[in-house]
Specification:
Oligomer: single chain
CATH architecture: 3-Layer(aba) Sandwich
Largest sheet: 5 strands, parallel
Mean pLDDT: 94
CATH class: Alpha Beta
Number of helices: 8
Structural class: alpha/beta
Strand order of the largest sheet: 2-3-1-4-5
Low-confidence stretches: none
CATH superfamily: P-loop containing nucleotide triphosphate hydrolases
Shape: globular
Strand content: 5-15%
Number of strands: 5
Length: 213
């Protein structure tokens, strides 16, 4: 594959969607023909699985893990791999690291089994660069709650995963940080406590370090 795969990771509320859109514009300016996608989603199957997962229809941890994996496998097959083969830059809002962090934080799966499922869903694909937007978990949840309440002028409430307790999200964040420590060549930690412009500048600097202008 000749394209570039850039992923954004972190807790809900850290600003991934905003930064992903800004990153798309930056990559467009570099002539990389960016394709911005989110997980789960992007395909008809993925969007339906997203709806089921967000509404809490997966009543077992194993079902949740496998539904996320199914959405990822479909997205890669339908959109990501063809774009990479065409030399495009694919920007993914979440990828395999989300599985290792979020499903791993459930403390339900054997680590080897969790990694195996994540690798199977990804089909061996590894991001060229991962941007970990890091923020203390209580601050991230406050941001997400405020964003949901303001959306469309009426409260939407937190989805099934966002309703988990603070201890769970502490574990999610710690697993993200552990991944960053294990793979510092691939994962760049971005301080999500900064303002939007400062975060975008730090992200651009990470890309320019990886792919100099």
């Amino acid at each position: 594959m000749t394209g570039r795969l850039i992923t954004l990771e972190g807790l809900d509320g850290v600003g991934k969607s905003t930064q992903a859109a800004l990153l798309r514009d930056y990559c467009e300016g570099r002539g990389w023909q960016p394709l911005l996608l989110r997980e789960p989603g992007g395909t008809a199957l993925g969007e339906e699985l997203r709806r089921l997962l967000k509404s809490g229809q997966a009543h077992s941890h194993s079902a949740e893990l496998l539904l996320f994996g199914a959405a990822r496998a479909e997205l890669l097959h339908e959109l990501v791999r063809p774009a990479l083969a065409d030399g495009r830059c694919v920007i993914l809002d979440r990828f395999s690291d989300s599985t290792l962090a979020y499903q791993g934080a459930l403390n339900y799966f054997d680590e080897q089994a969790l990694v195996a499922v994540a690798r199977l869903a990804a089909g061996g694909l590894v991001p060229d660069l991962t941007l970990l937007l890091d923020l203390e978990e209580s601050a991230a949840l406050q941001r997400r709650s405020a964003a949901n309440s303001a959306a469309a002028g009426s409260p939407e409430g937190l989805d099934a995963i966002e309703q988990r307790n603070l201890i769970y999200f502490q574990r999610v964040r710690q697993r993200y940080l552990a991944l960053w420590q294990q793979e510092p060549q691939r994962i760049v930690k971005i301080d999500a406590g900064q303002d939007i412009d400062a975060m975008a500048q730090q992200i651009r600097a990470a890309l320019e370090a990886k792919w100099p202008i």
